[in-house]
Amino acid sequence: MKRLLLLWDVDGTLIDDGHVGETVYPLAFERLTGRSARHRVTTAGRTEPEIMDELFHRHGVGRIEESRVAAELTAQLQRRAAALRTAGRTLPGAVAALRAMRAQRHVAQSVLTGNLRANALLKLRLFGLAEYLDLTIGAYGGDARARAELVPVAQRRAAAAYGREFDADSTVLIGDTPLDVRAGLVGGARVIAVASGASSAAALREAGADTVLATLRDTGAVIHAVQAPGPTARSPR
């Protein structure tokens, strides 16, 4: 059986953060600029640097050093960790799916997330999910602003770690937004979309997902979707 690289989105796919995560951006903005954030920006499916770039742009703020922005985002989520643990939850079926996929010896399992690495690790550890994942081969918001560019990052890291190449035929991305779907299709991965976040199953199908699941509750369905034929077998749309 061929080796597969399985990349999980975090927010909306594995966990529901109870809207705590989105409070971090205006708080970080205020600390970095000394001004209150008057405008809101959409966050689902985007990288954290991209979200902050739009906040700065909408408020007429010039580019701020990336390391300062990353440090502030990390600090703000650390301060909100207790609230995150209280308000957040692991989504139904997530633990069972992660455990089942870890047991598949031909699967290298990690994350592809818009979170900065430190923030992704905090969330995954807080909800007991980190142990199921090889987080050294994942791709994070600090690796590229455009989400599609994260797929090749993870593929290169996995290739270095496991001594074989991963391409669109051997990479699977699981996410919950149309932007996750686009990241996989553009970046080079087969896409399983889960309608566990704000996006409907219809919207995820329209975005081009290869498979759409209502939730992760059916572990057998998750395994079957991951092991389905790759992009070369897609039907024309």
What does this structure look like?
- This protein has 237 residues and is of the alpha/beta class.
- It folds into two domains: 4-17 and 89-233, 3-Layer(aba) Sandwich (Rossmann fold); 21-86.
- The chain is 42% helix and 11% strand.
- The protein has ten helices and seven strands.
- The chain has a five-stranded parallel β-sheet with strand order 4-1-5-6-7, with helices on both faces. A two-stranded antiparallel ribbon has the order 2-3.
- Helix 1 crosses helix 3 (66-79) and helix 8 packs parallel to helix 9.
- 44% of the residues are buried.
Instruction: Write down the domain tally.
Output: 2
Which CATH class of the largest domain applies here? Alpha Beta
What structural category characterises the helix and strand content? alpha/beta
Q: How much strand?
A: 5-15%
Tell me the number of strands.
7
If classified by CATH, what would the architecture of the largest domain be?
3-Layer(aba) Sandwich
Radius of gyration: 17 Å
Q: Largest sheet, if any?
A: 5 strands, parallel
Low-confidence blocks of residues: 232-237
Taking strands numbered 1, 2, ... along the chain, how are they ordered across the largest sheet? 4-1-5-6-7
Straight-line distance between termini: 28 Å
Number of helices: 10
Q: Give the overall shape, derived from the CA principal axes.
A: globular
Spell out the CATH superfamily of the largest domain: HAD superfamily/HAD-like
Examine the coordinates and then state which fold CATH places here, giving the name of the CATH topology of the largest domain: Rossmann fold
H/E topology pattern: EEHHHHEHEHHEHEHEH
Mean pLDDT across all residues, rounded? 94
Estimate percent helicity: 40-55%
